[in-house]
């Protein structure tokens, strides 16, 4: 090998020479990138213990069929949390904002082997983005996991928390990513995961816990700001918020007439007293109003398109960043994470029909969950439309507002509040576990039309609130970055 040399102009982390004696079980080049090898050797010099030495047992779960959701899934009150990758966090704390629930029959039957209890360590083993994200189950917890997460039982909560803090550090992420296999969907098998060298240091946990405390403070303030938007908007429009009555048998009972339901829906939700009160409240605005459909100049259903392939016919297809319901952010607008962004091929005639422009609104028309009605709304910003060829899935519907009548951003904010106060919950049907927005009812929603200056004032005020809330969210990320630098200094800088 001494006779071989590489040009100094080549990046040594992309083109390098490896001795045959240095080959281990892996043959893919990523595992042997010199920078990663050197980094791991630095970690090994601190005499860590492979993860397997802390493990009593390990298991991963499965995902019950969503097409038979009534057999497996339920609500929070009647089941246990079914944890997925999005419920894990880099702070080591489980997050339940977007949590599904399975019934006890499934939990204690088909998924019994992957049950999760307090102090268990949960680790992401499959999926794009950051690898080996880890969290610890809280006190008195009982739940389950899908196949993209594994549950590890350790000797104590402290051990689980120290390992989680290490795996969530940049050091842990590099070690885990080096061991992952697979192209479009990286994965860690058990031998790879259990081979990760762990440096047990309580100071890492202390640093992480400080970030968790700061994160909670930031999130509480951010939530307070975001929660103020709906009250502000309704107050400015003169709409009195409707108090949702307690969910008991008396409040769920009502009478109606044949005349009222003739030619209409037969499910009871539309005719509940609280449903009628919610919709009626929208007409109490102090401004003139028009039905949403009278303000539209274009609307179009989405298209899921075809799998993205490297060599496609550019005369026949357009490669698009396709926006799905999963990209809708309940608190802000769209959350298009680069690692999770989905690209698809859309036929050119269909792409032209989609006719996507800045300030178009996207409506989630299918999807939803037990605690989240369908009908979330987003607005396409100039940054998105200028930098991407965009599409949207068949679970999404696009509308374009006639801005000679009303500002698109004002309508976006209003429809977002409509969803937040559960009015779209009244306008959805459910088939095969999927909730569908009844578009003809949605398009008949009354849209208040204040004077143009008032629309601008409301929109600018809400934008400022969201900016402040986002700033608080960014502070948490900055704190995590600083913590990672401090952790690396402690673990690898000789300051143990």
Going by helix content, strand content and strand pairing, the class is alpha+beta
Helix content: 25-40%
CATH topology of the largest domain: Adenine-n6-DNA-methyltransferase TaqI, Chain A, domain 2
Radius of gyration: 26 Å
Give me the CATH superfamily of the largest domain: DNA methylase specificity domains
- Say how many strands there are: 24
Mean pLDDT: 86
The first-to-last residue Cα distance is 38 Å
Widest sheet: strand order? 3-5-4-9-6
Low-pLDDT regions: none
Largest sheet: 5 strands, mixed
What CATH first level of the largest domain would be assigned? Alpha Beta
Brief description of this entry?
With 496 residues, this protein is of the alpha+beta class.
Search tags:
496 residues; alpha+beta; Adenine-n6-DNA-methyltransferase TaqI, Chain A, domain 2; four-stranded antiparallel sheet; 15 helices
Task: Give a structural overview.
The radius of gyration is 26 Å and the shape is globular. Strand 22 (428-431) and strand 23 form a beta hairpin. The protein is built from 15 helices and 24 strands. The protein has helices at 34-44, 69-72, 104-108, 157-168, 170-179, 190-194, 202-237, 249-252, 258-261, 273-282, 348-354, 382-387, 408-420, 439-442, 452-492; strands at residues 49-50, 57-60, 73-74, 79-83, 100-103, 116-117, 121-124, 134-136, 142-145, 149-153, 197-198, 289-291, 296-301, 306-307, 317-323, 343-347, 361-364, 366-367, 377-379, 390-392, 396-401, 428-431, 434-437, 446-448. It folds into 2 domains: 25-200, DNA methylase specificity domains (Adenine-n6-DNA-methyltransferase TaqI, Chain A, domain 2, Alpha-Beta Complex), CATH 3.90.220.20; 226-458, DNA methylase specificity domains (Adenine-n6-DNA-methyltransferase TaqI, Chain A, domain 2). The strands form 7 sheets. A 5-stranded mixed beta sheet has the order 3-5-4-9-6. It starts with 33 loop residues before the first helix and ends with a helix. Helix 4 (157-168) packs across helix 7 (202-237), helix 7 (202-237) packs across helix 13 and helix 7 (202-237) runs antiparallel to helix 15 (452-492). The model has no long low-confidence stretch (mean pLDDT 86). The protein is α+β, with helices and mostly antiparallel strands.
């Amino acid at each position: 090998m001494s006779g071989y040399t590489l040009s100094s102009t080549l990046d040594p982390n992309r083109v390098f020479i490896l001795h045959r004696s240095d080959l281990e079980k892996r043959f893919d080049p990523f595992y042997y990138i010199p920078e990663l090898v050197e980094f791991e050797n630095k970690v090994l010099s601190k005499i860590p213990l492979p993860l397997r030495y802390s493990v009593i047992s390990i298991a991963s779960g499965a995902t019950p069929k969503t097409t038979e959701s009534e057999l497996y899934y339920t609500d929070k009150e009647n089941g246990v949390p079914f944890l997925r990758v999005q419920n894990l966090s880099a702070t080591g704390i489980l997050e339940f904002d977007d949590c599904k629930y399975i019934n006890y029959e499934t939990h204690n039957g088909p998924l019994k082997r992957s049950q999760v209890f307090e102090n268990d360590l949960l680790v992401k083993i499959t999926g794009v983005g950051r690898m080996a994200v880890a969290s610890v189950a809280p006190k008195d917890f009982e739940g389950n996991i899908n196949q993209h997460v594994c549950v590890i039982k350790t000797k104590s909560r402290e051990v689980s928390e120290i390992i989680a803090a290490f795996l969530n550090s940049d050091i842990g992420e590099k070690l885990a990513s080096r061991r992952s296999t697979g192209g479009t969907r990286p994965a860690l098998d058990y031998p790879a995961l259990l081979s990760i060298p762990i440096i047990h240091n309580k100071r890492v946990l202390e640093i992480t816990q400080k970030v968790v405390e700061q994160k909670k403070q930031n999130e509480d303030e951010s939530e307070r700001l975001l929660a103020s938007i709906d009250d502000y908007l309704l107050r400015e429009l003169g709409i009195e918020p409707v108090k949702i009555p307690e969910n008991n048998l008396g409040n769920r009972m009502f009478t109606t007439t044949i005349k009222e339901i003739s030619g209409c829906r037969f499910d009871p939700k539309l005719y509940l007293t609280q449903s009628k009160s919610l919709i009626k409240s929208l007409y109490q605005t102090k401004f003139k109003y028009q039905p949403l459909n009278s303000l539209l100049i274009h609307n179009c259903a989405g298209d899921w398109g075809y799998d993205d392939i490297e060599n496609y016919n550019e005369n026949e297809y357009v490669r698009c960043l396709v926006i799905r319901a999963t990209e809708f952010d309940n608190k802000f607008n769209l959350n298009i994470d680069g690692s999770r962004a989905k690209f698809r091929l859309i036929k050119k005639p269909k792409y032209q029909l989609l006719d996507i422009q800045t300030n178009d609104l996207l409506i989630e028309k299918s999807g939803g969950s037990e605690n989240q009605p369908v009908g979330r709304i987003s607005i396409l910003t100039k940054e998105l439309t200028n930098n991407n060829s965009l599409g949207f899935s068949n679970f999404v519907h696009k509308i374009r507002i006639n801005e000679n009548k009303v500002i698109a951003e004002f309508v976006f904010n209003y429809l977002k509040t409509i969803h937040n106060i559960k009015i779209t919950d009244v306008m959805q049907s459910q088939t095969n576990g999927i909730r569908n927005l009844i578009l003809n009812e949605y398009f008949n929603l009354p849209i208040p039309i204040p004077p143009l200056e008032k629309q601008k004032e409301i929109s600018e005020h809400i934008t400022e609130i969201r900016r402040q809330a986002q700033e608080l969210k960014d502070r948490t990320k900055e704190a995590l970055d600083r913590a990672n630098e401090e952790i690396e200094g402690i673990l690898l800088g000789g300051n143990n």
